[in-house]
Amino acid sequence: MCYNVQTAVDTKHHLIISHDIDKSADRGQLTSVAKLVQQAVKKKDITVLADKGYFCRLDIKAAYDIGITVNVPQTDTSGSAKKGIFNKSLFFYDKDKDIYTCPAGEELPHKLNVIEAGLEQKGYVNSYACRDCNIRDKCTRSLKEPRKMRRWIHEPIIDAMQKRLDNNRDIPVLRKQTVEHPFGTIKMWMGAQHFLMTRKHNVLTEMSIHVLAYKLKRMMSIMGVTGLIAAMTV
Question: Which pLDDT belongs to residue 77?
Fold first, then answer.
């Protein structure tokens, strides 16, 4: 049985604020870990940095709803580039008109709403312009169907997040410098071995001991042994 360790680490001191283990992958775990941080620091409005493995629109929306600012790089799963056709990023969205403009300069208006992959999405299409387009072969491989755009109804949350990432290129570097430090240290102490315990409760206990030892050593580095003892005996 394999367990995936989740940790939340503060960017200033590299202290592990919260941790948990789960059998699932990182995707979909962001909000649950962030809630543990909110409880630990007794603060709702926190900012979370995570890698693209955590990118999940529903998860990001859930975090947004409870006051969390999320910064997660997007993943491109469309496969358009491999197919040799225009990527969605080449279609410009006008939020005021609620339309897309395609690479040929044609406008794709909002036509319908659909449920796709559990997300309510708005569909944009211009059948007539697509039918007569002279660069159609660069846009779609279908001989009959026009190129369609899909936009999640809560996409402005993702747009705002992407704008933050674009305006601060250091965010991914800061994330890596923050969370990789304790992981690397604990793995070194463990000798890059698997957990010794079995069953989730026991494995979580084992991980908690590693986390406690890590935090004690970090606090001794930050405050000194005498300072830590004094703080613990107040």
Answer: 67
- CATH number at 50 reads 3.30.420
Nearest C-alpha neighbor of 218 from the set 66, 26, 15, 9:
15
pTM: 0.87
138-to-81, 104, 123, 125, 130 alpha-carbon distances in Å: 10, 10, 20, 16, 11
User: What range does the domain containing 102 cover?
Assistant: 80-153
Q: Is the pLDDT of residue 181 over 90?
A: no
Structure tokens at 33: 């870990």
Among 99, 119, 153, give the residue marking a domain's end.
Answer: 153
Q: Which two tokens stand for residue 175?
A: 């994330």
Q: Please state, in angstroms and rounded to a whole number, the distance separating the CA atoms of residues 96 and 90.
A: 18
Tally of domains in the chain: 2
Q: Are 10 and 28 contained in the same domain?
A: yes
Structure tokens given for 225: 């042994």
- Give the Å distances, CA to CA, from 85 to 88, 90, 128: 9, 10, 19
